């Protein structure tokens, strides 16, 4: 019997592989516009969900490489739907989540980015493919972790990709991830660990020198930067051997352009032309985040020291420190968010165990569903207990889906579920009613006490950092309450709660 993640036919698999190679060759050469055109052609001509999903994944990669303003959220939603149609395909699912993570990071949504990377890693750990395409997916995960500042995780992903290289019998240079290694090295320098930076850059140069025939254009770009950065520090090989260099691509992709430009800055410093380096650093092309926002400030400090402007060098160092202090604070916030998410999930698991029945659970949020609400109300009626029923409707949720896509919308719903689990009492039933509506049933609770619980829920939702999860699309909620007498008509009570909810919405609308 064929596995669900195997291509249905050998010919189909060979077609996917051949198209993937074309995409890879275009993207690593910095020809994203050509890759996007090729993807559009496949999407227009093919009805095969896997072919179209792969093509659109590579199109998103091209858009991100170009650094343009186009939001890939609608494309990511379409890819997710195509992958659902095609069935389980770990490599493409993993690549989808990696790109969704990078898109969220570029959009300033760190929580969404981290969530997608966690999902990508879970999928890829179960991948059975051992080929260049599988290696490339681990490579992309590595550089995405690296761009977000998670350097240890980035190196772990690189090592996983290199293990696949060994299993597939291909050169480890196919997962060189020199972008990951160079970024890690310069980050050490930014944190005052210059000796560690020099050591790591020498490791990049040593590996790159041995593997250069097998390196992609992208890896050669970062290899040249490693060599130029060492030369700017005054480090050159013993015996007069030249550092690896060569040409860098003439590409419109912003993923190359800043690195190429800062390479010229480093080379000017190494050649004792600090004034030229400072002039180059004053150009817009020197700014960007591909090597970290702190790197231009660090190079400016080195160049100013060479001119004898030590006061200016100190100012540049202070600017660099402001950037890395801000970024380190952001990383700490991300870890705090992940701890909070784990606490929410523990409470959700407890709720799921208390109401264990797959037919009565919502698969997205883990909360009880409408069937469980009905059953719970019947249990209350059987023991003669009344209850308060609260109906919750999210405000601003459509804007989340329209702006960031349905995968981000799903994360919002999951986060709301976690906040509900935090806010209600042990005997209460939080549930997903449907769409962006939720419900809470509070046994043996009057409406005055119920509104106090509702106040906690509202405060938790309003106080959540939605800007970190879905930037520019704040999420709020409206809530309506009604009393459910023992054995009362649940549907009628829900209608009454719904009427109060919409009275609240109308009251909040501007006149």
Characterize the structure shown.
This is Diguanylate cyclase. One of its GO terms (biological process) is cell adhesion involved in single-species biofilm formation. It comes from Catellatospora citrea. InterPro entries: Diguanylate_Cyclase (IPR050469), GGDEF_dom (IPR000160), Nucleotide_cyclase (IPR029787), Rev_trsase/Diguanyl_cyclase (IPR043128). GO terms for molecular function: diguanylate cyclase activity. 67% of the residues lie in helices and 6% in strands. By secondary structure, it is an alpha+beta fold. α1 packs antiparallel against α2, α12 packs parallel to α14 and α17 runs antiparallel to α18. It starts with 9 loop residues before the first helix and ends with a helix. The N terminus is likely disordered. The chain has 21 helices and four strands. The radius of gyration is 27 Å and the shape is globular. A four-stranded antiparallel beta sheet has the order 2-3-1-4, sandwiched between helices.
The strands making up the biggest β-sheet line up spatially as 2-3-1-4
Oligomer: single chain
Strand percent estimate: 5-15%
- Name the shape in a single word: globular
GO molecular function, one term: diguanylate cyclase activity
Pfam family, one: GGDEF
Protein name: Diguanylate cyclase
Domain GGDEF: 385-511
């Amino acid at each position: 019997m064929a596995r669900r993640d195997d291509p249905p036919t050998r010919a189909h698999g060979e077609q996917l592989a051949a198209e993937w190679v074309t995409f890879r060759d275009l993207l690593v050469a910095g020809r994203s516009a050509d890759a996007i055109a090729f993807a559009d052609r496949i999407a227009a001509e093919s009805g095969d969900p896997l072919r179209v999903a792969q093509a659109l994944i590579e199109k998103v990669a091209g858009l991100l490489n170009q650094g343009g303003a186009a939001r890939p959220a609608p494309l990511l939603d379409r890819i997710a739907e195509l992958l659902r149609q095609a069935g389980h395909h770990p490599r493409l699912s993993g690549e989808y989540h990696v790109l969704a993570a990078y898109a969220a990071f570029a959009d300033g949504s760190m929580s969404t980015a981290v969530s997608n990377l966690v999902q990508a890693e879970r999928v890829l750990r179960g991948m059975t493919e051992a080929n260049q395409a599988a290696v490339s997916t681990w490579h992309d995960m590595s550089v995405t972790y690296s761009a977000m500042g998670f350097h240890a995780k980035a190196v772990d992903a690189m090592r996983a990709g290199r293990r696949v290289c060994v299993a597939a019998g291909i050169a480890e240079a196919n997962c060189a991830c020199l972008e990951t290694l160079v970024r890690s090295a310069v980050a050490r320098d930014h944190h005052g660990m210059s000796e560690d930076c020099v050591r790591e850059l020498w490791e990049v140069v040593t590996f790159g020198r041995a593997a250069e025939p097998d390196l992609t254009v992208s890896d050669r770009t970062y290899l040249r930067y490693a060599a130029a950065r060492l030369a700017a520090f005054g480090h050159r090989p013993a015996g007069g051997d030249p550092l690896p260099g060569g040409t860098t691509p003439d590409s419109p992709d912003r993923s190359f352009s800043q690195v190429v430009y800062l390479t010229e800055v480093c080379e000017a410093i190494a050649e004792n032309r600090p004034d030229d380096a400072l002039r180059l650093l004053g150009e817009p092309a020197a700014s960007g985040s591909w090597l970290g926002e702190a790197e231009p400030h660090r190079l400016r400090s080195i160049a100013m020291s060479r001119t004898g402007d030590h006061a200016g060098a100190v100012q540049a160092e202070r600017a660099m420190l402001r950037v890395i202090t801000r970024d380190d604070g952001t990383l700490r916030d991300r870890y705090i968010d992940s701890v909070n998410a784990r606490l929410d999930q523990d409470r959700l698991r407890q709720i799921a165990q208390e109401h264990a029945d797959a037919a009565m659970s919502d698969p997205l949020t883990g909360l009880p569903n409408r069937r469980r609400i009905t059953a719970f109300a019947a249990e209350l009626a059987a023991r003669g207990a009344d209850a308060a029923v609260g109906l919750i409707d999210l405000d601003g949720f459509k804007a989340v889906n329209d702006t960031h896509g349905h995968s981000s919308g799903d994360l919002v719903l999951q986060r709301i579920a976690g906040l509900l689990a935090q806010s209600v009492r042990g005997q209460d039933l939080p549930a997903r009613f449907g769409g962006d509506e939720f419900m809470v049933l509070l046994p043996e609770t009057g409406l005055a006490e119920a509104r106090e619980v509702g106040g906690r829920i509202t405060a938790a939702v309003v106080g959540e950092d939605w800007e970190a999860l879905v930037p520019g699309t704040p999420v709020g909620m409206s809530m309506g309450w009604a009393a459910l007498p023992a054995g009362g008509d649940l549907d009628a009570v829900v209608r009454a709660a719904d009427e109060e909810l919409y009275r609240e919405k109308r009251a909040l609308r501007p006149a």
